[in-house]
Amino acid sequence: MEGFGEWLKAGMAASAALWFGEKLIKPGVKVLEVAEKVEEKIKDMGAKCAFPANISINSVAAHYCAMPKDPLEFKEGDIIKLDVGAHVNGCIADNATTISLTKDKDLEKAARKALDQAIKVIQPGTQVRQIGQVIEETIKGCGFNPIRNLGGHSIEKYIVHAGVFIPNYDNGDKRTLSEGMTIALEPFATTGMGMVKNGKPSGIYRLIRKKPVRNQAARKILETVEKEYKTLPWAKRWIRTPMAEFAISLLEKEEAINQYAQLVEQTGGVVSQAEHAMIVKDKPLILTKKEE
Q1: pTM of the predicted model, to two decimals?
Q2: What is the DSSP letter of 159?
Q3: What is the Cβ-side half-sphere exposure of residue 245, based on CA atoms within 13 angstroms?
Q4: Which of 116, 161, 170, 252 is catalytic?
Q5: Which residues contact 70 (CB under 8 A, 6 or more apart)?
Q6: Can 186 be counted among the known catalytic residues?
Q7: Parallel, antiparallel, or unpaired: how do β-strands 145-146 and 60-62 relate?
Q8: Which of these is catalytic: 39, 63, 87, 94?
């Protein structure tokens, strides 16, 4: 569609990588292996990673990023969230799905159903609280709780989470969607109380500001980050320069970069997720459609 070419290309790459990754997730497979293959798929599609592949399991809702030599493997009974983003010249598409390595798919279905129902109300003039209301009612109707401090978001060039938060419950926000906005709808359903807290460090970083640093390795990393990733998140395992571990720690201490925390459901509830990116129109232009 005219005017949205790079957004659509990013959407095709993000979606292809997501469903490619879904097929790789099986008991005994390493999380690191899936993450690397998903990220490579994005590049094969002619795009770049908008953020590292997030592969979060059970009560970890978001921001699990495989570390170098990560030994973690999937196992029977796991509920896995695969969250993948791609960009083309800063035009970002973000999507996610849940893979249940268990016979009970109800939690997985709750997030997917909430996403499908929320898409139906997307048009210019829709209040963000109305989207949250639909998501909350759908998830609760399935017997679960929405996560209240996670949600969807507006997207701008080189900014995954831009200024508008799209809640998974009716938070009273009467701001409205406008024609041509790029947004991601991102329902999270849980068996827990519906709030997340910060967990362990994730190994996902973002540039805060470019600062003068004396250490040569740190300077090199800062230059690479500014050139390659700009304001987008990046993974520790992507940096393969000498003394990278020390240099990244130094940059974090100097507050040149910031590390995200893993996000964990407060009461230990298991979490599912579904997500599509779209452009707001009378009939939304979904960027991340699954090709059947």
Answers
A1: 0.96
A2: B
A3: 2
A4: 161
A5: 30, 31, 32
A6: yes
A7: unpaired
A8: 94
Amino acid letter for position 39 = E
Q: 51 with 204: CB under 8 angstroms? A: yes
Catalytic residue among 39, 108, 136, 186: 186
Catalytic residue list contains 87: no
Q: Please pick, among 83, 108, 136, 265, the residue that the annotation labels catalytic.
A: 83
- Options 39, 108, 265, 275, the catalytic residue: 275
Q: Is 276 noted as a catalytic residue in this protein?
A: no
Domain ranges for the chain: 5-197+267-286, 199-261
Q: Which fold has domain 199-261?
A: Arc Repressor Mutant, subunit A (1.10.10)
- Active-site residue 78, yes or no? no
pLDDT in tens, 178-230: 999 999 999 999 999 999 999 999 999 999 998 889 999 999 999 999 999 99
Using CA atoms, how far residue 19 sits from 22, 24, 37, 142, 189, in Å, is 5, 9, 12, 25, 20
**For the segment 175-184, what is each residue's pLDDT rounded down to a tens digit?**
999 999 999 9
- 5-197+267-286: CATH topology is Creatine Amidinohydrolase (3.90.230)
Q: Tell me how far apart the alpha carbons of residues 6 and 284 are, in angstroms, rounded to a whole number.
A: 17
